Amino acid sequence: MRINTNLAALNAWRALTINHGAMTKSLEKLSSGYRVNRAADDAAGLAVSEKMRAQIRGLNMAVRNAQDGVSLIQTAEGGAQKIQDMLQRMRELAVQAASDTLDDPDRQLLNKEFAQLIEEIERTANSTTFNEKELLNADAASATFDIHVGPGADPDNDVITLQMADLTDTGLKISELTISTKSDATTAISTLDNAIDTVSSTRATFGAYQNRLEGAIETLKIQAENLTAAESRIRDADMALEMATFTKYQILQQASTAMLAQANMSTQSILSLLR
Could you tell me the residue range of the domain that residue 262 belongs to? Predict the structure, then answer.
């Protein structure tokens, strides 16, 4: 019997160290809820998981961008609706002024409201803005709004471009209209019909933009949901399985501790031979 080297104790100690390390890792997974907490846990899984996380965060931000795009379109459409309502009122006045039941002094009175409506259309077109960006004037008509609705940088698949319109009095060609005479009123009716058609077409375009953006939002949400589920399968811990693993190593650690104590006790028996 030897006392300088206790192989049984060393083996028990090695087993105890292994079991303690495994139990500690299992406890960490249970505490965090993640199967992969660091690269050493699963290097390939971590790399794939991080790529998926970047995609998921990009998709969630794209949803917010698309929602902002919907808000922009709703703002523009609201301004266009007000302008169309005023055009309809102007047409009513023009039809009234075109009747021979009125004389020119009567038409002059109607023209006062008519002129005020033209000015209000101009003001509405110039004041309809979203985040300080003008939406319904000449500057807006010559510009485009790119809404980034994808997680990447592909301009063909990740961007929806919105085109605004010029609904100012000049853009609608109503700035010089008057209904001071019967002839002017008749001309105004035809011009206003064209202006109303222009605004109707613009509103239809805005509606199509909104429907497209809302469709994109739903698609993005589904993509984010599916990627989140996939990332969870890679990174998240199976809590039931991990609890079973933790219990296993906890028992093994207790057994290793007990066996280490027994191995150390075996050397104590040698002392009895020396007495």
Answer: 7-33+237-268
